[in-house]
Design a protein that fits this description.
The chain has about 210 residues and is mainly α. The chain is built from 9 helices and 3 strands; from the N terminus they run αααααββαβααα. α1 packs antiparallel against α3 and α4 crosses α5.
């Protein structure tokens, strides 16, 4: 079945003033849709056409040379954005605050406290040269969490050899300029500061608990 654009779980303007409505509309309806369209075109008529995108991006080495890069970029973009929408929520209505429970404990075990974790994730996002993502991942051995960043639309699920980091992503921060430029221009740190107000920690905790 071809990939399809998932519906946003909130209105375009639900994240205002932290993320503006026009950015959400373009980011979701134009950028994410383009990744889906390009991935579907590359997969049409191949034996991988029915494979879920999350599984496909773990098997890039098995794809033919003529479609591998296209799918790395576009199936990767589809997977990344499909998570991104779900880990956001309106401020005060599921968004913002701090995690609780096992996720909070894992973050404190890895980083000392939540404030230091925020500093480290913001650092990973701010120092990512060009376009890419910062991630909070559950470690592959199931023992705790780690921060990493990837270029372009790479995803930790692609493995260390492709994406430069491993683990299972549970929270992704998009630092492509199209995610923030209309409102923040070149001030990526300001966007990152605002983004914390709309992180859906309940969903991140569910992602952490999933196996």
């Amino acid at each position: 079945m071809p990939y399809t654009l998932p519906a946003l779980p909130y209105a375009f303007d639900a994240l205002v003033p932290h993320i503006d409505a026009k950015t959400m509309e373009i980011h979701h309806g134009k950028h994410h849709q383009a990744y889906i369209t390009n991935a579907n075109k590359a997969l049409e008529g191949t034996k991988w056409a029915e494979m879920p995108a999350e599984e496909l991006i773990t098997q890039l080495a098995e794809l033919p040379d003529n479609i591998r890069t296209t799918l790395r970029n576009n199936a990767g973009g589809h997977v990344n954005h499909s998570m991104f929408w779900t880990v956001l929520a309106p401020a005060g209505k599921g968004g913002g605050g701090e995690p609780t429970g096992p996720l909070s404990e894992a973050i404190k075990a890895a980083f000392g406290d939540f404030a230091h974790f925020k500093e480290e994730l913001a650092k990973a996002a701010t120092t990512r040269f060009g376009s890419g993502w910062a991630w909070l991942c559950a470690k592959k051995d199931g023992n705790g969490v780690q921060i990493c960043s990837t270029a372009n639309q790479d995803n930790p699920l692609m493995g260390e050899g492709v994406a430069g980091c491993g683990g299972r992503p549970i929270l992704g921060l998009d630092v492509w300029e199209h995610a923030y430029y209309l409102n923040y221009q070149n001030k990526r740190p300001d966007y990152i500061t605002a983004w914390w107000n709309v992180v859906n920690w309940g969903q991140v905790a569910k992602n952490f608990a999933a196996k």
